[in-house]
Specification:
Blueprint: E1 2-4, E2 10-13, H1 22-30, E3 48-50, H2 58-67, E4 70-72, H3 96-106, H4 119-139
């Protein structure tokens, strides 16, 4: 699971088993997001979050609204329309930036197939790759 900023730079990452529901993992990853500013304390809450249909659940949307985060998550096709306002998908066009961050991680051949047996080692390598991606974006 990877959280990026609006430019596609990684902010937080984690790994978990493939069988766990991603919305539960997303809440834990959002707790790790820290955006430092020039002055004042760092931001820990984004203004909005863009996610695909896999994160469509009422519980996850309520958790985001409680945190003051605007979700841009489309409804699944099989889901019945709920009463109330339709989701605001104006920011969903920026989802390509998240996919680009995953593509940048895919350039590191080590992540295409997981060779490490220890999860902490694998997560450390992901953090190193995220650091390299961020430095490339900053330095141009």
């Amino acid at each position: 699971m990877l959280v990026t900023d609006g430019e596609g730079r990684p902010l937080a990452a984690t790994i978990d088993s493939a069988s766990r529901y991603e919305a539960h993992i997303a809440e834990a990853v959002l707790d790790r997001v820290v955006v430092h500013r020039r002055r004042g304390r760092p931001r820990k809450r984004p203004e909005s979050i863009v996610a695909d249909k896999g994160y469509d659940s009422d519980a996850f949307r309520r958790a985001l609204w409680r945190r003051g985060i605007r979700p841009a998550i489309p409804f699944k096709r099989v889901r019945r329309p709920r009463p109330g306002p339709a989701p605001d998908l104006s920011g969903y066009r920026q989802r390509w930036r998240v996919e680009a961050a995953f593509a940048f991680l895919g350039q590191f051949r080590r992540f295409v197939v997981r060779w490490e047996h220890n999860a902490q080692t694998y997560l450390a390598l992901i953090f190193i790759a995220c650091t390299v991606i961020t430095m490339r974006a900053i330095l141009g």
